[in-house]
Amino acid sequence: MNQNNVSEVSEFILLGLFPVKEVQLALFFLFIHFYCFILLGNILIILTIYLDYHLASPMYFFLANLSFLDICYCSVTLPKMLGDFLRQPKIISYGGCMCQLFFLHFLGAAEIFLLIAMAYDRYVAICKPLQYFHLVSGSVCCMLVGASWIGGFIHAIILVMLTHQLHFCGPNILDNFFCDVHQVIRLACADTHRVETLTFINNGLVILSSFILLLISYGILLMKLKTSTTLGRGKATSTCVTHIILIFVMFTPAIFLYTRPLVPLFIDKVVAVFLTVIFPLLNPVIYTMRNKEIKNSMKKLIEKYGLWITL
């Protein structure tokens, strides 16, 4: 067996968010509430879209898939982090670390590509309304969602292959609450310049190019809507603004973490919390607060099953 492919490190030690035990306990109760809200909020969105035939449109089909991805995405890091708040030391196996790295980037990239699919949906709805149900048919929607998952898989498997080929012989301490690709690479007992460059290019292509493409697309759509006199212009504008807000919420921390040189900064963990916890937390809030259709449908669903909460 090739020794270069065998890791002498069998586990990594995570330093977590904060070393003080009392603070960790407080964070445990805070983040477990966040996790429950993410799960319940996104499950409610999925059920609302599935049960209300008025929401049987491509836009809500993509939104339901986005909510499903959010549930999976936050579940990659949050359960492990919650458990680590209550134990010392915080240990993750080498295989668990590689799995966490893979699924985090797989699901994160899939969400990015799904946002591009949602931008395409809005482009056709606004610029080619008469061809909408032909260009965004059920089969096309399924193909776009499938392409998002495939694109995310390709992006993640490249990162894992680049990382797994490195030789790890110690140290094995990660100053984070999850296995982040940049920090894992820095622990390798080898010259990592080539791997760092390829990782930077891979992340840059996915994150920066998608961010610029989405901003240009929605900028064009907003200009088109500004000069439009068609019925429903206000609703279409509100939907585009919602998508733009979501883009900034997701891409700002991702750009900060993954499209700069691999130099650790003291705020990296704070930004990582925003990307892995706050972004999935804000997604259901943004859509339920800014979308009257889904908000009203949620209220009907809640009233039907006797759950009284204020949305």
TrEMBL record:
Subcellular localization: Cell membrane; Membrane
4Fe-4S among keywords: no
Molecular function GO labels: G protein-coupled receptor activity; olfactory receptor activity
Main location: membrane
Pfam families: 7tm_4
Keywords linked to the UniProt accession: Cell membrane, G-protein coupled receptor, Membrane, Olfaction, Receptor, Sensory transduction, Transducer, Transmembrane, Transmembrane helix
Membrane topology: Multi-pass membrane protein
Gene Ontology CC terms: plasma membrane
Keyword set includes Coiled coil: no
Database matches in InterPro entries: GPCR_Rhodpsn, GPCR_Rhodpsn_7TM, Olfact_rcpt, Olfactory_Receptors
G-protein coupled receptors family 1 profile domain mapped to chain residues: 41-287
Transmembrane segments: 25-47, 59-79, 91-120, 132-158, 205-225, 237-258, 270-289
Family statement: Belongs to the G-protein coupled receptor 1 family.
Family matches, as PANTHER family: OLFACTORY RECEPTOR (PTHR48002)
Name the record gives this protein: Olfactory receptor
Gene: LOC110089943
